[in-house]
Amino acid sequence: MSDEARTLSVSQFLDIVKGVLSQAFEGGLWIQGEIEGFNGRGKHTYFTIVERESGKKAAVSIAIFEYQMRHIKPLLTKHRLELADGIKVRLYGTPDIYVDRGSFSFKVTNIDPRFTLGDLAGQRDEIVQRLKTRGLYEANKLVPLPVAPLRIALITSIGSAAHADALHELESSGIGFEVLVHDVRVQGAEAVPTVVAAIEQAGARNDIDVVMLVRGGGSKTDLLAFDSEEIAAAIGMCPLPVFTGIGHEVDTSIADEVAHRAYKTPTACAAGVVQLVQEFVQSTENAWSQISLTASELLSDAERSLNETAQAVKSAVVLALNESAHTLRAAADRVRRRPTEVLSLAAHSLKSASDRLRLLDPVNTMARGWSITRDANGKAIRGASALKQGQVITTSFADGDATSTVETISTRTKQQSTSKKAGKK
Question: Are strands 210-215 and 178-183 parallel, antiparallel or unpaired?
Fold first, then answer.
């Protein structure tokens, strides 16, 4: 190297490099990579885009100045995107050298949201295919759903609007839900591991009926955690039905796709659980109403049968009385026509007829301590052998009726009855 070689000051060198860059990339160019180290807290936005290949990493510093962000922000909002770590982007701008610091950066003037959307869609499709291959895509939908899910594991960020909305919907229902809250992060680097851990913990318990995973709305990038394979796999392997209530209006996350049931908002998710319990309560009430109606009809039928039996007994008694009265009148006539000894015979006959008449009257019979026992159809039961345990029977006494249930049955054989009668002799 010659001592006569050109020597430049630092500023001269940087100016030359800056000029070369400006000339080489006049008009600007597109550059793509994955965002890392995002910082959008100040007026200007800074981050690095990186490329990883074969164990190597290439990085470029990115700067989006405030006035350029005013143009880019509406474009991101239109496509429901936000810049964040882990997002792949395609940026338009020009390379530049900061002379004061000697640092190289890429000044952005535009962004291609379709590139980011396409990359996210491609990643999503790959994850869904892997879940299907592992048998986890439909697994949670096959988990049996409790008829009345009253014990809930609520996975959300404590203190968030989603947490408050879900609890309010459950509490306002008036149903005595038991809610176990798992506090998790719902976006950022900690979201995936904390949500996965909460799902696994809830699934390992035996005092939980259903898992609710809820968060509020946000951009596509805010909801990236719920498109992760890790959360989707945890839902697929969970032994409990998982309900999701992720606050989005248009998009459906992978977590929604693999869940047992998916709702648009945390409130709707809680309302879905409430509806399940209300449907169970309504079906139970309907069943009891039907049971009550059937019992009432059976009682009415039994009462009608009993009345018909009583009317038949009454008719028989009246008929017997009429016949006896006719016999008595005839006997009286004979008495008037016959001598005294005939009168005595008639009196005896009258007494016998009167006794038979009283025997015909079931009321008098029952007044002496006898009773009539009938089954549910109103049929008279003539022996203990006709009874069954648990059978409902009605016993009529002189002054009313009694309904009872048979608990024990003790019968005597014909031989036993004969022996007892012989012993009495």
Answer: unpaired
Number of H helices, E strands in the chain: 11, 13
Fold match between 10-111 and 122-278?
A: no
pLDDT of residue 365: 63
Question: Who contacts 260 (Cβ-Cβ below 8 Å, separation ≥6)?
Answer: 140, 141, 143, 145, 241, 242, 243
d(CA 197, CA 267): 23
| SS3 state of residue 85 | coil
Residue located via tokens 């005839």: 330
Q: Are 140 and 261 in contact (CB under 8 A)?
A: no
Please give the class, per CATH, of domain 10-111.
mainly beta
What are the C-alpha distances in Å from 124 to residues 103, 106, 189, 213, 226?
37, 29, 18, 20, 11
In eight-state DSSP terms, residue 260 is S
Residues of the chain with pLDDT under 50: 335, 417-425
> Residues 390, 406: contact at Cβ < 8 Å?
yes
Residue 274, both tokens = 């409430």
Q: What is the DSSP letter of 356?
A: H
| CB neighbourhood size of 255 (10 A) | 24
Domain at 122-278, CATH homologous superfamily: Succinyl-CoA synthetase domains (3.40.50.261)
Rounded Cα–Cα distance for residues 267 and 243 (Å): 12
Residues facing residue 291 across a β-bridge = none
What's residue 358's pLDDT? 62
Q: Which residues contact 298 (CB under 8 A, 6 or more apart)?
A: 376
In this structure, the strands spanning 210-215 and 242-246 are parallel
Spans of all domains in the chain: 10-111, 122-278, 361-420
How high is the pLDDT of residue 414? Answer: 57
Q: What is the pLDDT of residue 339?
A: 55
Contact 82, 76 (CB under 8 A): yes
For 51, other C-beta atoms within 10 Å of its C-beta total 14
403 strand-pairing partners: 394
Q: What span, in angstroms and rounded, lies between the C-alpha atoms of 45 and 193?
A: 28
Residue 400 phi/psi, 5-degree rounding, is: 160, -170
Length of the chain: 425
pLDDT of residue 207: 93
Look at the pTM and tell me if it is higher than 0.70.
Answer: no
**Which pLDDT does position 421 carry in this prediction?**
46
Q: What angle do CA 346, 355, 335 make, to 5 degrees?
A: 10
